[in-house]
Structure formats: C-alpha cells, structure tokens
Amino acid sequence: xxxxxxxxxxxxxxxxxxxxxxxxxxxxxxxxxxxxxxxxxxxxxxxxxxxxxxxxxxxxxxxxxxxxxxxxxxxxxxxxxxxxxxxxxx
Length: 90
Description:
By secondary structure, the protein is mostly helical. The chain has one helix at 45-78, and strands spanning 34-36, 40-42.
C-alpha cells in the first residue's frame, strides 16, 4: 500500500481505520479489525488487550492517587482544632 493510499480526498491525515492504534500495522481490507472504546482500531485481539490493560492500569493509578489526595485532605480537615467554652453541670 503506498503512502498516498493512506490519505483520502479532502483529508489532512490518514483515515483512522488504516492502521492499528498500538503497533501501527496497516489494517487489511479483508482482515478483521478489533475495535475498542468506539473508534480505536487494532489489528489483533492481542494489541487490543494490551491497550485495555494499559488503560486499566492507568485508571487504577489515577484512583489510587485520587484516594490518597482525598485521605490527605480529610486528615487535614480532621486535624482542625475548635476552641470555645464548654459548660458542664453535675
């Protein structure tokens, strides 16, 4: 497939279904295309699975960081000391 064949009339870049998102292998017209998250094409189940695993690891890191940040903010809030007068009667 020539470089010019990757471009469509009136477009500035290659069509999104021309190459695998992960390995950039050209996608054949008679081969299966494995899609992920709507419009992300892959040449094989293995490439798609690798992307899924990367996305899941990124989500776990993000959630862990968000959780740490939330815990730190909660700790700072609960460390606030309120002063005032307490009246107790017997």
